[in-house]
């Protein structure tokens, strides 16, 4: 991916190396990041959803403001994250008014290492990247990308950009009013149906990441040969079925919260081809 021409975002806060009083506990960083990789694909990231209620109640009272460095990070990965976020801002601030008749309010991005505080409660690398709707912020420990490469051979800048764009996709869902409605519904239904709703939310975020890539490529010619395959490979590697097989040795469809590899690939491709928010309506789709 050609990202050197992307405008870097001014919405990045860099908390790397700041740590937390008490740290991340006894877990080594390797363990934490592997758990995070599983977490990301198994549905921990929209923590407001299933099982997230306790996080939200826990989030408010103990929430202490932690201030990181503002401005564009100097290191390569930090600059990359800032550039991709800046590009999602440029795309969505055009596309959202055009296609959904809404102004785009950009989210914040917090880079952290090991552990930090979020508006949704404590954040650890173990959780993988996630979006917190309460403070409209994406949280990521960038070592997640190294693990994608190392554990799943799912590396590459466009694959990493897809991860960030997926989280920004949750923010777009939030802006569209979808997240609050889904959350409310999830509290009224059983576990299996609540999981189904999560899958729809996740596949929509994959599709919206595709919509971003479509417009980014149209305006900045950002995609290079092999990029799409790279992101599709990442989507495939981190599908719920694949990860469940690796961790449990069997597949349990009812507990899918992100969608299977095939579904993730297909919805990412759908958004990428169409470039339309409407094409991402996983709630109306007859086939997920
Ligand atoms: Zn997600």
Q: What key phrases describe this protein's structure?
A:
8% strand; binds zinc ion; single chain; 288 residues; five-stranded mixed β-sheet
Rg is: 17 Å
Average predicted local confidence, pLDDT = 84
Strand content: 5-15%
In one word, what is the shape?
A: globular
The description of the largest β-sheet is: 5 strands, mixed
* Distinct ligands: zinc ion
Distance between the termini: 29 Å
Number of domains: 1
Read across the widest sheet, the strand sequence of neighbours is: 2-1-3-7-6
List the helices and strands and how they pair.
Elements: E1 12-14, H1 29-42, H2 53-61, E2 69-70, H3 76-100, E3 108-111, E4 115-118, E5 121-124, E6 130-132, E7 137-140, H4 143-152, H5 157-175, H6 178-186, H7 191-220, H8 227-237, H9 240-248, H10 261-274
Helix pairs in contact: 1-4, 3-5, 5-7, 5-8, 6-7, 7-10, 8-10
The structure holds zinc ion.
Brief characterization of the structure:
The protein is α/β, with parallel strands linked by helices and 288 residues long. It has helices spanning 29-42, 53-61, 76-100, 143-152, 157-175, 178-186, 191-220, 227-237, 240-248, 261-274; strands at 12-14, 69-70, 108-111, 115-118, 121-124, 130-132, 137-140. The structure holds zinc ion.
Describe this entry's structure for a reader.
The chain has 288 residues and is of the alpha/beta class. The protein has one domain (3-280). The protein is 52% helix and 8% strand. The strands form 2 sheets. A 5-stranded mixed beta sheet has the order 2-1-3-7-6, covered by helices on one side. The chain has a two-stranded antiparallel sheet with strand order 4-5. A hairpin with a 2-residue loop joins β4 (115-118) and β5. α5 crosses α7 and α7 (191-220) runs parallel beside α10. The longest helix has 30 residues, at 191-220. Residues 23-27 and 44-63 have low confidence and may be disordered. The structure holds zinc ion.
